């Protein structure tokens, strides 16, 4: 369990490092608190949304519900990629108050954009019209997010099973701390569907699940300041699951609707150059909702299993894992 917690936190650190390791968000503080939040909101959009999508992934690898007392213990990893539409943003539409975009410039890169893409924002002196400062926005090639998950499920009466995810909030040296928990319920509906209930190898069920994630990441920029990035995210999904179970191999698919909320707060006091010192300068929130669809396969070798599936939505997700299953 300890190793799984470490892997999950490393995945979070690796993704966050792409944002803060290069100091891009810290650079935004030079634009003043208002524009720093506006630029950060647009720049980190793929990160906030990918985090939420990942938390809604990996909840199931079968449409079948455990019998009473049956259980499974599963380790999965979900790999999410950002679509091309999230790799850039139009700086003329985000409402900057101080900085402007020079004539002839196109879109600016988000964190998911290429490192070879950049845009220079200009601060103009109101009276003379002369440029007095410049702020560069650079892509980070951070167009994917990986989140390992560990969870268990147990069968209950009335064709129902309950699922849980849990990672106690643990501190990892000077990097920070992270924790996660989630609860889900799956209920068999095969008996309510005339055609399906007559076919032994067909399965149908519905699922509802919620995941909550919190983390604090240390941020230390020499000469600028030190603080932490407080992250919190909640994700809720509902699914209709259909599956085919035959010896050794089973197939499953799910159609569902999910909602996510992710918050990022940069806490601490930072030197923003001409703007002076800013305290707790950045507070961001991202919300997503929508339908998605996935299809996958599980191979059973006795009580052991291996599975993989692919989700189609605004953000594509590939999930794979291994587990122990009984009844």
Secondary-structure map with pairings?
Elements: H1 2-20, H2 24-28, H3 33-43, H4 45-55, E1 71-81, E2 88-89, E3 99-100, E4 108-109, E5 118-124, E6 131-138, E7 144-156, E8 160-172, E9 176-188, H5 194-197, E10 202-221, E11 225-245, E12 249-271, E13 277-279, E14 282-301, E15 304-312, E16 316-326
Antiparallel strand pairs: 1-7, 1-16, 2-4, 3-5, 5-6, 7-8, 8-9, 9-10, 10-11, 11-12, 12-13, 12-14, 14-15, 15-16
Pfam family, one: DUF6588
Keywords: Signal
Organism: Carboxylicivirga mesophila
Provide an overview of this structure.
The protein is α+β, with helices and mostly antiparallel strands. It has a single domain (2-326), classed as Lipocalin (Beta Barrel). The protein has five helices and 16 strands. It has helices at residues 2-20, 24-28, 33-43, 45-55, 194-197; strands at residues 71-81, 88-89, 99-100, 108-109, 118-124, 131-138, 144-156, 160-172, 176-188, 202-221, 225-245, 249-271, 277-279, 282-301, 304-312, 316-326. The strands form three sheets. The protein has a ten-stranded antiparallel barrel. Strands 3-5-6 form a three-stranded antiparallel beta sheet. The longest helix has 19 residues, at 2-20. The protein starts with a helix and ends with a strand. The model has no long low-confidence stretch (mean pLDDT 84). Keywords: Signal. It holds the Pfam family DUF6588. Residues 1-18 form the signal peptide.
């Amino acid at each position: 369990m300890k190793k799984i917690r470490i892997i999950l936190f490393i995945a979070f650190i690796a993704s966050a490092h792409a944002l803060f390791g290069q100091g891009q968000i810290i650079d935004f503080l030079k634009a003043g608190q208002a524009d720093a939040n506006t630029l950060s909101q647009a720049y980190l959009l793929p990160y906030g949304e990918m985090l939420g999508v990942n938390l809604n992934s990996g909840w199931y690898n079968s449409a079948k519900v455990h019998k009473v007392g049956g259980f499974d213990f599963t380790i999965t990893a979900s790999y999410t990629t950002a679509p091309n539409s999230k790799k850039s943003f139009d700086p003329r539409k985000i409402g900057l108050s101080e900085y402007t975009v020079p004539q002839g410039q196109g879109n600016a890169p988000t964190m998911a954009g290429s490192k070879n893409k950049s845009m220079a924002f200009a601060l103009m002196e109101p009276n003379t019209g002369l440029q007095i400062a410049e702020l560069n926005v650079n892509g980070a090639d951070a167009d994917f997010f990986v989140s390992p998950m560990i969870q268990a499920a147990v069968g209950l009466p009335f064709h129902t099973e309950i699922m849980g995810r849990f990672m106690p909030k643990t501190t990892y040296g000077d990097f920070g701390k992270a924790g996660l928990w989630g609860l889900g319920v799956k209920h068999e509906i095969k008996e309510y569907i005339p055609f399906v209930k007559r076919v032994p190898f067909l399965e149908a069920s519905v699922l509802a699940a919620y995941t909550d994630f919190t983390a604090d990441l240390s941020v230390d920029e020499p000469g600028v300041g030190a603080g932490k990035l407080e992250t919190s995210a909640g994700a809720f999904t509902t699914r209709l699951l259909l599956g085919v179970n035959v010896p050794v191999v089973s197939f499953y698919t799910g159609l569902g609707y999910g909602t996510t909320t992710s918050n990022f707060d940069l806490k601490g006091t930072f030197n923003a150059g001409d703007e002076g010192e800013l305290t707790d300068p950045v507070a961001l929130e991202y919300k997503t909702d929508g339908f998605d669809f996935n299809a996958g396969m599980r191979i059973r070798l006795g009580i052991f299993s291996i599975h993989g599936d692919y989700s189609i939505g605004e953000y594509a997700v590939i999930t794979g894992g291994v587990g122990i299953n009984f009844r």
